[in-house]
Amino acid sequence: MKQSIFTGTGVALVTPFRKETVDFTKLESLIEHIIASGVDYIVALGTTSEAATMTESERSAVQSFIVETVAGRCPIMLGLGGNNTLNITDTIAHTSFEGISGILSVTPYYNKPNQRGLMQHYRNIAEVSPVPVIMYNVPGRTGVNLTAETTLALAHDCPNIIGIKEASGNLQQVMEILRQRPASFRVISGDDALTLPMLALGADGVISVMANALPKEMSDMVRFAMKGDLKKALPLHYRMLPLMNAIFEEGNPTGIKALLEIQGSITNILRLPLVKASKTLYNKLSTLNNEFGN
């Protein structure tokens, strides 16, 4: 029987900033809103959080604050990855996992390991992690693809690796994983716009950027789809699709932070090398948000 944890809608949580610091007041409001809207779990310090531009002390403070604010109301997945395997395993050894239900670990970027290197990388992480590991395959960001063959080998051989966030955009690859995975292995969409097709193929949910701004609609769509009710899921999917596509036009979290500011949730501040959305995109998002009814 499949585990229930990390099924449904997870939110790749943004980090609201003031000029030089984390805006914990806005972060608390955002967490409360998405939990009240019915999301199933939260991803802390993932790519969308801009964790790469935070100091170590900031990341620790944000993790602790999220754990304290969530207060056990839903599972928390912690982003913890990189391209230095030894550094990751050492970080795991020195990280508090109180309130953390799993790790989301992106494939190593820049140094472009082959499949044998990727396999050993994840084996080492799984061996030292005190919580389950979810792999994250996003070749558009990392420059390397975790193949279906490698994913399946790790899924079958490493009990502590319980799933993958698949953002390759390759549905053929996704289907191969779904076809041969162990029954308890999670396949999670990492692409908002492909979530409904992946759910129809048998995937277990999404880690969503869009759910920062539309947590109820995204959660409802996922729940309907997972119950096989496409009559209700499809209209929600197509209603959200223009916004789903627009928030990624100038990268992530550029678009979602602009949309959240338009909705009045946060101040639209990003850290270099990311910059604010162009006026053209900002106006487009504002128009689409109004058309959506927000």
Walk me through the structure.
By secondary structure, the chain is α/β, with parallel strands linked by helices. It has one domain (8-228): TIM Barrel (Alpha-Beta Barrel), CATH 3.20.20. Helices cover 46% and strands 13% of the residues. It is built from twelve helices and eight strands. The protein has an eight-stranded parallel β-sheet with strand order 7-6-5-4-3-2-1-8. The chain starts with 7 loop residues before the first strand and ends with a helix.
What's the short version?
The protein is of the alpha/beta class and 294 residues long. It has one domain: Aldolase class I (TIM Barrel). The protein has helices at residues 24-36, 56-70, 85-93, 115-128, 139-142, 148-157, 171-180, 195-201, 215-226, 230-246, 254-262, 279-292, and strands at residues 8-12, 41-44, 76-79, 102-106, 133-137, 161-166, 186-189, 205-208.
